[in-house]
Write a structure and sequence with these properties.
The chain has one domain: Four Helix Bundle (Hemerythrin (Met), subunit A) (Up-down Bundle), CATH 1.20.120. Helix content is 48%, strand content 3%. It has six helices and two strands, in the order αααββααα. A two-stranded antiparallel sheet has the order 1-2. α1 packs parallel to α4. The two termini are 15 Å apart.
C-alpha cells in the first residue's frame, strides 16, 4: 500500500491521539529492525524491510506537510535517511507532526492527501490506516509482534469498507482482493485482510 483512499472519522471522536499511538508503535517497530533484515521481503509488493522503514518516515513527514496546508507528495516516497538514523528521523518527524496537528481546529480544515482532499478529521484516519498497515508489513517482514492498540485501529476498521470497497481491486486501486477473516478476529487482522494482506 502506498496510499489509502478517503475515509470518514467516527462521529464525535478525535482521531489524533490514535494516530500518534499508531505512529509510536511504528517507531518502535522500525527501531527493532536488525541490519541483517534490511533486505527481508514483506507482504507489501516491491517493498523490503528497509524500503518500508524509509517509506514510513516519509509518510510521517507527509502528515505534517498535509496538516500544514502543503501537498504531501512534495515529500519523496522514501526518506533519504541512513539506517543508523531512522530512530532520530522518526522522533523529529513525530515532533513536527505533533506541532502541526496540535490545534483542534485542524480537524475541520481541508487537508490535501494527493489523491483526495478531506477535512483533517478524516485525513488523519487515512494516515492512521497507512501507518498501521505498513507497520504490520514491516513486523511481518522482520518477525516482530507489535502490541497493537485497538483504540487506535478502531477508526480505520470502522471506515475501511467505505475507504476502499471490495471491488474493484488492482490497477489504480493498489490493493489485492479482500482476504476474509472472522468478524471476531483482532482488529489488525481485519484491517490487513481488507487491504489484501494474509493475516
Amino acid at each position: 500500500m502506498s496510499d489509502t483512499q478517503a475515509t470518514p472519522s467516527p462521529s464525535g471522536a478525535d482521531p489524533r491521539p490514535g494516530f500518534f499511538r499508531a505512529a509510536a508503535l511504528a517507531g518502535e517497530t522500525i527501531a527493532a529492525v536488525r541490519p541483517d533484515q534490511y533486505g527481508a521481503a514483506s507482504p507489501c509488493p516491491d517493498f523490503d524491510a528497509e524500503q518500508l522503514a524509509r517509506h514510513l518516515i516519509a509518510v510521517l513527514r507527509r502528515v505534517a506537510v498535509s496538516g500544514g496546508g502543503g501537498h504531501p507528495f512534495s515529500v519523496d516516497s522514501f526518506a533519504d535517511v541512513p539506517a543508523g538514523e531512522w530512530t532520530k528521523a522518526w522522533q523529529e518527524a513525530t515532533a513536527e507532526a505533533e506541532a502541526v496537528w496540535s490545534d483542534p481546529s485542524i480537524l475541520g480544515r481541508t487537508c490535501e492527501l494527493g489523491f483526495v482532499t478531506l477535512p483533517g478529521a478524516a485525513a488523519i484516519v487515512v494516515y492512521t490506516t497507512e501507518i498501521s498497515l505498513h507497520t504490520w508489513d514491516l513486523a511481518r517482514a522482520t518477525g516482530q509482534e507489535p502490541a497493537w492498540d485497538d483504540a487506535a485501529l478502531a477508526p480505520s476498521v470502522a471506515a475501511m469498507r467505505f475507504a476502499v470497497p471490495a471491488e474493484p481491486r488492482g490497477g489504480p486501486v493498489p490493493f489485492g482482493p479482500v482476504v476474509e477473516v472472522p468478524d471476531d478476529a483482532p482488529l489488525i487482522d481485519r484491517l490487513a485482510g481488507w487491504y489484501g494482506r494474509q493475516p
